[in-house]
Amino acid sequence: MRRAHALVVIMLLIAVWASFAYLALDLGQLFSAEAGAQMLKYVVSFFPPDVSADYLAQTWRGTLETIAISAIGTLLAALLGLLLALPASGRFGIVARVIARLALNFLRSIPELVWAALMVFAAGLGPFAGTLALAWHTTGVIGRLFAETLENASPEPAQALRFAGSRPALAFLYGTMPSVVPQLVAYSLYRWEINIRMAAILGFVGAGGLGQMLYITLSLFQQAQAMTVILAMLALVALVDAASAWLRQHLVE
After folding, report:
1. Which of 94, 144, 170, 196 measures 20 to 30 Å from 130, CA to CA?
2. For the packed helices 94-109 and 53-88, what is the interaxial angle rounded to 10 degrees?
């Protein structure tokens, strides 16, 4: 076992060295005095942030837009993901299972930025494109998680209802769903955390929110305004992470 572990470590080191050599990465240039001075000069240009009343109000509107984009996108994804998770969990036969899983794989294999670019062409610039982009990608991710949750659910409660004469749909609704709903909601809240960050990034392709404000300010070399947007992003992510973690903990309990 020790020889096997040592061999794995040696192979990883060789792979890392080969990657540096292939990419021609020069770490010395990164940590040079000139590079450090340029980075420090650029970072200093972001301070102090713009805290004028007008720009704070504009940043607040962008924050609300980012929250709305992520919340609606996650909600749509949860609904569509649940619809696809039912056949993907094998409840409607092998053919439906394969088709649903292929659809979920297709949706999540396309990154959010690519979906956003496509939705901008379809729906135009603005928050609607960002919402659709998050919804499509998140449907693929959350649908797979929902399907695995349904597959791992205990079948005894639903079987007991079936043996008592209940219809299959009612047996699933009252026998299976109560045991998996907390996990489904927890997955949805976790994806909402991720979508908050992605909603900010999607603004770089014109999908609205704080991301679009950050892209515009950086493009115009308005570092003070960009710093205000960055601080708003940090505060938003921290608040959503804390609220989502609290909700997930209480749901699991």
Report:
1. 144
2. 160
